[in-house]
Fold each of these.
Amino acid sequence: MESHRVIVCRCEEVSLADLIETASSYSCTARELKLRTRAGMGCCGGRTCRNMLDQVIEAVTGQKPDHAVSLGYQPPVRPMSFQLLGGRK
Amino acid sequence: MLDSLIIGAGPAGLAAAVASARQGLRVRVVDEFYQPGGRLLGQLHQEPDGTWWNGLAEAARLQQEAVEAGAEIRCGVSVFHVTRQDTSWIVSTSEGVMEASMLLIATGASETPVPIPGWTLPGVMSIGAAQVMTNVQRVRVGTRGVIIGINILSVAIARELLLAEVKVDRMILPAHSVISGDASHPVAVMQSMLRIAHLAPSPLIRMGSKWMKSTWMQRLGTALYPSRGFSMWGIPIQLRTAALAIIGVNQVEGVRIAHITPDGQPVSGTEQIIPADFVCIAGELSPLAELAAVAGCPFAYVPSLGGHIPIHNERMQTPLDGLYVAGNITGIESAKVALAQGTAAGMSMAFSHGSLRDPHVLSDSIKQIEIVRNNATLQFHPGIRAGRMQVGLMAAERSL
């Protein structure tokens, strides 16, 4: 499959080829893959691509997911308005 | 202050609301969607005994029971964050801050579709989105579609599309890639489909599945599998065809497909483009545990349950004070199991609260989960029991 053409992280427009290349060059963890490519760091908070980052790491480096979640979750876990963030509601 | 705040008005959340409100707890349920019911809203399928499971009716019944029991249901509310402060849970939502002494996270699961070139084009959706549009919003998803990904969920939803007179041209596999896993492997897909063959509408398929039990038979079956596939309810299911790319300029116009070997490799010279104005991608389901994570709950990684599961005991308690989980966040299973888990979680909260005095009521509700699981017509994963045992052991290690 033409992996360069598959967008994995839609928010930051990171392709499967970018992820595979980064994972192989640095033989890194899912967290490092995220920080190097920005995949999973867009406005949706990685809701679509989070699992795929783990899958790329497992396929490329052989690291199995651990009991601890590899990519942390930070609040807010849903997009929220500035009005709400500012405490107007 | 609320005794119990329940996040998610699906089968687990609503059942928990009914059980705990009936025991006299002050209960509120919040849900992101504008209508309570969660995934129940889209479900419509025929059981092997011929009766129909109508999720919409089931959701309406649960909603009515919850309201009659005194629970409050608020829809269109998103939860951003949960934290524990002194003896209560502080829940930040799009409708302001809510406080409760106990919190039940029943957020269900999310879909993890397999990415394919062109999957970001308008007209491509997850199979669950097609189900919601068809059965809940009553919107026609298109006039001629292709379903990429053959599994229990996508076959069931294909039939729902058919009942709504939406044409599904065929069901095929996603092309092999680094992250497509078993979904692009015809033999693996055949094996998982054989586990649900007893639900098939055709006696021929049901009979065939009996002598397909051994692995070499399955390999042979996959090798001999006709390229135009078998039909279920008139929809061709083509295990030996893969989607290489979804094509179109401004929206979906078609799918480039090719025949594949039993191991999932494309056969050169067999490529062709088939027209389509919508495409559904069916992947796996993954427990939606983000709120449990920000709450600080520890996890267990259990592939047979769908991924990372908040650690919990049989009373649906997590190691965090006053934090409970129920439904698909604890592992991917049917709506009926989620319902039974919700009832147990509701009883468990009532027991902790002190309003449920009789411990037998609680233990009976826990036993009921196992009874429902044993009677289930399909198991989402053969390793569910082993997976649940592992989570139970990890809870016991934390003296839960």
Amino acid sequence: MTEIAPAARPTGQVALVDLLDRLLGTGVALAGDITISLAGVDLVRVELRALVSSVRAEGRG
Amino acid sequence: MGEAGRYMYAISRWVDPAELAELRGLGGAEVQAVEHEGLLAIVSTVGLDEFGEDELSEHLQDLDWLDTVARTHHEVVSGVASRAPTAPLRLATVCMDDASVRSRLARWAPDLRQVLDRVAGRAEWSVKVFAGPIPEPVPAAREVSTAPGSGAAYLARRKAHVDRLKGAAEQAATAADDVHDELTRHATAARRLALQDGRLTGEEATMTLNAAYLVDSSASDEFRAATQALRDRHPDERVDLTGPWPAYSFAAMDET
């Protein structure tokens, strides 16, 4: 599997970017005992940004 | 497994425990229901060595981990949503034990019931619109024949190209608005989500609409037909329809 996995899923499988659109941005936000809340969402966005730069880097290489 | 917690996937109403047993949660764990006054929290047991606060922060940096957890969460939510009204929870909501899960059901009961009433008998449909191809600049070959006035010709050509680009962008935005307005008429509720970056979707075409629609199950054929009619009306745009999804985009408790 390459680093550009979200776009490169086999047909029929939901793209990770579509899932995260919904699993992080929407849905019932109940604070659990252990919570990643907004901090977690930020972390994930950092991860997605990192993904974007890795795609760019591959494009240049 | 060391210390354990309860990972919450969704809130629902009555679901046959035998049907829940067909679902597999994170790490292959059994999916169970924790009940409080007719509200069910759909949960499974997770190890805090993986889902503790510090561990979660670390794992969220790991795209493969995130991929697996997001997909498992989605599969459990979808499995429940196909059987009963379901309000999906956000990713990674973990409680220490069943008592803690119940206390949350008790505290938020009126809001949760309101969400379940809103999504009962309905499903979410996702629609994305992609703009048509970007107009090509006028071929430079013509420049040769107008050599004496090539500066002016260049500027004219340049202006024509910029006008075409502007026209294309306006057309794409108008088409996206038209699709959204029309589909909103066929839905109980509608939401525009943030447009996705082409580098993540792998799409070359520009996304002009990323929207979610809450549609009565009895009206899903009508919604599909409306989408097809919009494809015919906007042949330059690509209109992608996926669904039915669990009602992720319509489960927020602060909405009415």
